[in-house]
## 1
Amino acid sequence: MPPLPECENDRTRIESCFAGEAVVLDASGALYLPDHAVLIVSDLHLEKGSFFAARGRPVPRHDTRDTLARLARIIGYYRPSCLVCLGDSFHDIRADQRMAAADLLTLKGLLAKCRDWVWITGNHDPQIAPTFGGRCAVRERAGSIDLIHRPEDGAPPLIAGHYHPKCRVRAAGRSMTGPCFLMGEQILLMPAFGAYAGGLNIRSEPIAALFGPEGARRAMIYREKLWFLD
Amino acid sequence: MGKSGSKPKTKNLLPDYVNSWFAGRGWTLRPYQRQMIEAFTARRSTLLVAPTGGGKTLSGFLPSLIDIHQTRPSGLHTLYLSPLTALANDIERNLGAPISEMALDVTAESRTGDTPSAKRRRQRVKTPNVLMTTPESLMLMLSYADAARMFASLKLVIVDEIHAFAHTKRGDFTALALARLADVAPNHISFGLSATAMRPEMLAEWLGGSRGATDIIRAKSAPKPKIRIMKTKRKTPLGGYMAQYAVPDIYKAIRSADTSIVFVNTRAQAELLMQMLWEANDENLPITVYHGSLNREQRRKTEAMMAAGKLRSVVATAALELGIDWGDVDLVIQVGAPKGVSRLLQRIGRSNHRLDEPSRALIVPSNRFEALECRAALTAISEGVLDGEDVLAGSQDTVIQYIVNCACSEPVLPDSLYGEVTRALPYRHLPRAQFDRLFRFAVDGGAVLSAYDRYQRLREDESGHFTVAHPSVRRRHRMNIGVIVEAARLKVMKLHKNGKTGRVLGEVEEHFAQGLTAGDTFIFAGELLAFVRLRDLIIEARAASSGQPKIPAYAGGQLPLSTFLAEGVRHVLSTPESWRTLPAEVREWLELQRRFSILPPEDKLLIEHFPHRKARATIFYTFEGRRANLTLGLLITRRMERTGLNPISFMVTDYGLCIVNLEEIGDSAAKALFSPDILGDDLEEWIMESSILRRSFSHVARVAGLTEQQQVRGRATARQLAVSANLIYDVLRRHEPDHILLTVARRDAERELLDLKRLSDMLTRFSGKLIFKALDRASPLSIPVITDVRTEQVQGSGVEMLLAQASLAEDADKLIEDVRAALA
């Protein structure tokens, strides 16, 4: 395991513990497992912009570039030996046909920096085009923890994505919303990492149902800083 | 033909069936109704300015009904445009009577968003002679391939309440639809109808478009209205916005009139005043409330009761200003300052439908500054001067929507579209280069990177024409036509005793619901309700008997003081001779100011600086309206922070800006704060940091077809699948900061939110004309400004809100006492 860079108290990352494993929540929306040197990101939704554009909606298409640039930054910081994309990495199975050559080159450069790169399949990307490299899996394990796209499909303890959790807090008469990590006893739900991924409020039915009455700890990302809310 | 010929001519003008119909009703043809018939015959586009209730709408329709009956056209003859769906429906009903009573061979139908789709389809195949519709429905009709056929036979377009269209984004949208219509149906003329004479020349130009200003017919004006400031038992308070002090007097006035309307400026004021009137309502007079958040059924019910004379009074907001028929109202009470002269006249026009008698109205200022404003408005009315705004350059996202709309109907050429767009008054100065950028966006999103330009909304053919690239573009565009983006709203349902079923009372903004927990009581639609739960986007509540109610704080209810009226207030302040008709306490207040400090002169700007609550207060008496003052406050505090003057907070009213800081400020430092160069870097930085641009972008993105107004809110899948404007905004700012939509959003923000033009005009005008007064305590004039509570933003309980105002009123009285003591 590479030594974890010193944690400055600037809220760009928080060390915590989930299912007996050390975890580092990163304000970019990524999760690092220091004991396994595994970096996890979820729901990149690459080429979502071009997906809409191809259907005649004039959505600007910088999202892939933006998402990859942020991914490059955290890979440079944590230098993981394994990177796991927790599904819905591509907005659809034809994303490879639309991705700009420059972006594809950037992505391949990132793959080259990690010894192992796993594409967990999701509902948006049940198949991953071989062009991208890396290996494809329905699930992956890190110690006792199951890594999977939809939490309902895994065996707890598990880390999953799919729902793009987002929460809202009110303070001093202002309301702030941001993507968030949700950390229950057995389930850790990841925020979406993609620039155009958006979010679903954690109080909505499908997310609330996952955690039952004991609920989950929320770590909200707001303006590139991370806040535990309890 | 000499003078003697004019009478028989009038008679000949009207067919017998019209003459006998008029006679049967005991009516005579009004001169302007005759003129409109002549205008139609001469094929002259015309703007008619006539008072509400004077048969204005009939004046527009009469020539059309006669012509249709005589020529029996098979298709569309007259298109009637109204700003309100309700108005279109209302007119359809009202037109039914003359058509059936004169046994005319005329088909007339309305077509709005509420019209069933089967009927709409039928209307496109077999179009009625008269179609009553809204700008959005018109634009939708223009997007169909058969638009040219449908409108080919059009002879007349009637634009009702035309003043409601000018100056707004929706007006820009309407101007474009009319420009298109001029192209599709070149043989029609236009009639504009307006009740207020606000800048008729400008409206005539707007209506005429490329064909130049239309003719103007002004109805002989009714006798000048009898308006006065209401005499009250208790004194006009120094500050506050609720006019609680005048409730017994307002109640007395309601009792003395047969039917009255009490106008207020915001929905929250309407609800609160309604509650206070109920408490005073010992005789159980039928009084109710009417505003835009109530549901349609509730509003229709109130309208019907009012028309039938079953109500004694209605507390209403601007929602009631447009020309729906309200029966015999004999008194209008305006509570709070009018904010604009034309607006006040429009409201007063609701009283008295008999043209030869003067309207009767009372104005109730809610504080002493408002008393000055009321005085200025009354002077303007008695002198017959009106305010109005210039035509602003049109909003550009609307142009994008328009381009796609045209391409949905038929292949279009950029050159001819540019010609069409610039024929609409708001766009006559739109540069070709900017149009091309907008066009490019409509085509492919304005992609700058060659790798990305494969995807297109519009496709170019060999002849250079553009058409939609895919049928789905058409479908989606049609679902999202329009420029009105509503804040998310939730329905309020009052549950029956069984706790399961209930009745919907209306809608409130989403953020209000977020502040509610079970058991909280609130006032809505004049009823005290207790929150039960939020279910399926409906706020469920039951009737409550007691509790401290919250008042929904509605967004966007506040109108800024018009520039014209601001001038009026400055004038009143600087001419003591005009104070005679002001209440005694207001005169005394001004007199104290004159002795203690100085009255702001008309051509100079007064700045006062004094110690206040362990800090220092600086007051800038700008009279430029709340919005401009807010922007100025943000900019000045930024500058103070930079120069180490330690600003703590600031307060704004329509009249002035108060900044609190820790350091003493001298003459030159204060004047340096108020200099035109504040609109440079400070403004730039602030706009970039604040969320104003973000909000404006999300509106622009919707209108330009980038995102869609979410039809199914809260549905997980729908939300996740859409790309939110917020995320696009962030990405664009990082990767393409000069994107066309960011530019358009920036223009809109400056125009709509910041009142920048007004601010920069003021900064320039008073540059070098500042008066600085250092004082040892708060001046009388400053007291309403430093004790201002912005009730629209208070979300606490209604009672707390009143308590806060009461305690501030006490504060204010103490401060005035201080001044008196100092002068003694």
## 2
Amino acid sequence: MRKILIGTLVVLGWAAASVASAATGTVLRDEKLLTQPSATASVSGSVARGATVTILAKEGGWLRVTAGKTTGWVRLLSVRAGTGGLGGAGIGDVVGAATTRSDPTRVVAVAGLRGLNDEQLKQAQFNADELARLEAQGVSAAQASGFAGQSGLAVVKVADLPQPKAEQSSSPWGENR
Amino acid sequence: MKVKHLILAALLALTSVPASAFDLGKFLEDRVNRELNKDKPAQTAPAQAAPAQTSPASAQTAAAPQPAKQKIDPTQLGFALFGDYSLEEEVRIGRQIAGNLLGAVPLVRDDALQRYVNLVGRWVAQQSGRNEVTWRFGVIDSDAINAFAAPGGYVFVTKGLYRMLDNEAELAGVLGHEIAHVTKKHHLKVLKQSTLIGALGQAASRKVQGSDPAVQNLIGNGAEIMARGLDKSAEFEADRVGIVFAARAGYDPWGLPNVLQGLAGLPSGDNRTSLLYKTHPHPADRLAELGEAVGDRFDGLHGKDVANRFYRLR
């Protein structure tokens, strides 16, 4: 019995190690599956919002997934990893609903690890020595630019992203720019 | 001193209820709302009251008789109630929050790590357009998975979150999100609203070396402002803005999404994420929201993930 258990654990461990090639995800919006990780590739199928997929590989902003009998590439931001469903806005977060969704009344228990909770933050006392340590570690713009150059990082022109239409609410946060 | 503040808070709560005579609370509220909404067209700002009435304290005090002829000294309300905070004020506020946070959780004792994070962070921050800010980055010694920003350029990542990262582009993505909170002044906007609600004056005013009592009154107890979190649209905005900062710095723009995927894949009961999920939307919602904004806009980008230089924790 024990041997079987250990054997199972080894198999599970192996599966976990190759997690990029065997993880489950949930599709966040209706999407086409493409034959290559490129918007110009031909379509091999489609997946509907809420569908469960198996994530086989990742390349840049693309994931290779299997849904039923179809396999293809889909945008990284169209799928969430994990089995928790669509998240807060959607359905199906059966397991996650009670445990991971925001619940301000819940007492945060961080047993057995050095956590960080509301009460600790509320009770926190100003620590001048730690702040001095932090401030001493700052670097100059020239140092940062030199560091970036060492690994070939250079400034790229990228436009601001638009605010999605669905989010344009009456919230005061929306009009910040 | 403390009593005076309590009276002030009570008065603010009281006067947020419509009164027949000259209503100072209403006056302040209108002024603050006008300040908060001044970017918007005038007709869309019908002076929405902040949710002061929902707090238990105001519910209790609302029943009490209104004290006659209370005087409020506007300078007691914290600085720059009307108008923008100056850079100096912003740094003063950020410094106090950062010092308090470090009082709860110290820095990881690894100078090479801290220097590395400062170099990456500063490089990303240089793409934010706020170069007048003296940026400071720190990895704090907690297993919780979280990151924090305070006004004036203070940015923190927990050791728990750092351990989840795989390359420099992912670190740049996380730091980009926090830098965006600073450049968009999200916490300063919360402070203006909480001043209105009357949260100020409740701080336990123990004398601590180096601590700034005026700012402490403004931010409440300790670093609790970090536990209260922001409006979820502020988090979505920080994702949108931060991912662009990292991309402008030359990094693979998929760093932040990859970290969010990692968070989404964690078991739902993982207590290392308790505070993160209390203060942030679910990662699945953040991915979906970011996906709407990004679409095909990054298809032409070929950033670097800089995996070989990534500093691994010992």
